[in-house]
Amino acid sequence: MNRTAKLSLTALTAALALAFSVLKLEAPFPVLPYLKFDLAEVPVTLGFLLCGLPYGVAAETVHFLGLVARGADPLGAFMKFLAVVSMFLGAYRFSSAVTRLALGVAARVAAMTLANYAYFYLLFPGFLGYALKYTGSVYALFAYTALFNVIHGAATMALSMLVVREVKKRVRI
């Protein structure tokens, strides 16, 4: 795929991600309802899988900037950005679908565990009490957050990989 096609696909996936966010195509995680399963990650993951790491990161950056421009909480939008980009970084060097999925999800969990530690202990320690109302302990809070990231990352990567496989069967890329 030439550079112009990759840039066009990047713009398309970023626009789709932003449209999905505007339409609120999301569902709350039952244990921690402030965490949302967000369908907007799928288009940028498609862009990453089809075009490569720089284009996937570019699409997610445009998505992040669009969210902030629309008035979303900048820290929440950044956490979403960090989750997606860390997943890409974990997956980008590998061609095996299983390895890509596993390492992408593992990188996402690791990055978000560190980010949540910083969020709860350094930036907003007052919010820790609110989060603990749902889980009862810090260990459970981090375990449920990790579970959320495993489910969300695996679902996003698996769905995107299935779509890419079907696209490659039908379109010469």
Helix-strand sequence: HEEHHHHHH
Number of helices: 7
Main β-sheet description: 2 strands, antiparallel
Which structural class do you get from the secondary structure elements?
mainly alpha
Q: Whole-number average pLDDT?
A: 95
Cα-to-Cα separation, first versus last residue = 6 Å
Shape: globular
Radius of gyration: 16 Å
Which ranges are low-confidence, i.e. pLDDT below 50, for 5 or more consecutive residues?
none
Largest sheet, order of strands side by side? 1-2
The count of β-strands is: 2
Residues in β-strands, percent: under 5%
Q: Approximately how much helix is present in the residues? A: over 70%
What does it look like?
The structure is a single chain. By secondary structure, this protein is mainly alpha-helical. Helix content is 79%, strand content 3%. The chain is built from seven helices and two strands, in the order H-E-E-H-H-H-H-H-H. The chain has helices spanning 3-22, 41-51, 53-69, 74-91, 97-123, 125-135, 138-170; strands at 26-28, 36-38. A two-stranded antiparallel ribbon has the order 1-2. Helix 3 runs antiparallel to helix 4 (74-91), helix 5 (97-123) crosses helix 6 (125-135) and helix 5 packs antiparallel against helix 7 (138-170). The termini are close together. The mean pLDDT is 95.
Write a concise keyword list for the protein shown above.
173 residues, mainly alpha, 7 helices, 2 strands, 79% helix, 3% strand
In short:
This protein has 7 helices and 2 strands. It has 173 residues and is mainly α. The longest helix has 33 residues, at 138-170.
